[in-house]
Amino acid sequence: MTMGKKRHRGVTLLALTGLAALAGGAYWLQRADALLEPSVAQGDGGGDVVVETARATRVRLSDEVTAVGTLKSNESVILRPETSGRINHIAFRDGERVKKGALLLALDAGIQAAELQQAEASLALARANQSRNEDLFRKKFISPQALDNTRAALRVQEAAVALARAKLDKMRIRAPFDGVVGIRDVSVGDYVREGEDLVNLEDTNTLKVDFRLPEAYLNRLRVGLSLDVVSDALPEERFSASLSALDPLVDVGGRSISCRALLSNREGRLHPGMFVRVRLDFGADVDILTVPEEAVVTGASPLVFRVEARDGRLAVKTAPVRLGQRRAGQVEILEGLEDNAEVVISGHLKLRDGAAIRRQEDAARADARA
Q: Which domains does the chain have, with CATH numbers?
């Protein structure tokens, strides 16, 4: 037998073997379906998915929204020198409350003071020359041009004095507003460079509360709304604040809007940087439809498995829903469900649209009877 005939015969045997395997598989699948059909027809639920369900219920809640926020000083600045120099004097204690304009630090200003004295002496001479030339001009002893020259020289010396005085003032660092100074890391004798951090100053009599809300609340927010603020550090106390500003730009990433409220802190109970919880009350009660959070299958678009009766048995149908606020394990359903609709809250992984199910309590009773 030639090599070509042997190869052809091998291919034929392989094909026949495959056909036989497929026929056998189809036979056993038919037998399995036949064995399952009686139990399904009898409605014993042997192939149904056992799930736990709950009802969509309407509840009346106060119309409010909660968020987390951060406290910030009403005014906050890190004091830095505008020129390099050696610290000559520190006029505050760490954590001390200071008034606007109070001297906080002074750099060695010997050179700047001498420059100011020199400029003031030159200014005095320029003024004397101006006065003398004005008298000579009235007597027609000098020309108008000579008088103009002395006037220009006087203005130059006046500017030189102002410049020297400004340089001297830069050597003294004063509080730009009322506040509390922080903890310094410099001492008398330290040489500091221009722009180096010296100490922070915080206005904490009023605090800013910064937080974010979903853009769905944008049309309901207005400046002046009152809100409650609670800190984990002071869980038994509630602080009142007022909405003061809304960012006109909605965050594209989170679809949220930045909000700022102002909170009076005269007693100093709260501090900048603290984490707080914010509750904003819109002033009216609302009637909303809710389901347990476990009922919602999250994804590109949220959905629930709604329970329906079909030919005397229970099955599920996927129902896309639009969600609202979440509270205490419940989520608001804005669209997609009606009152008292039954939904699946556990067992989602085994479900698909149209799958037959049994309630968990029904399955337990059937097992007890068996």
A: 49-61+288-369 (2.40.420.20), 65-73+202-284 (2.40.30.170), 81-103+174-197 (no CATH), 109-170 (1.10.287.470)
Quick one: pLDDT at residue 4? 47
| The 3-state secondary structure of 189-220, one letter per residue | CCEECCCCCCEEEEEEEEEEEEEEEEHHHHHH
DSSP-assigned letters across all residues of 318-369: EEE-EEEEEETTEEEEEES--TT-EEEEE-GGG--TT-EEEEHHHHHHHHHH
Cβ density class 16-44: b for 16+ within 10 Å, e for less: eeeeeeeeeeeeeeeeeeeeeeeeeeeee
Closest by CA position to 75, among listed 164, 190, 170, 203: 203
* Signed CA dihedral, 315, 349, 298, 342: sign only: positive
The strand order across the sheet containing 103-107 reads 172-174, 103-107, 85-90, 191-192
30-55 per-position pLDDT tens digit: 443 433 333 333 344 556 899 999 99
Among candidate residues 105, 74, 33, 61, the one with its CA nearest the CA of residue 264:
74
Query: Which amino acid would we find at residue 367?
Result: D
Low-confidence ranges of the chain (pLDDT < 70): 1-47, 284-285, 370
Instruction: State the pLDDT at residue 107.
Output: 97
Structure tokens at 194: 């221009």
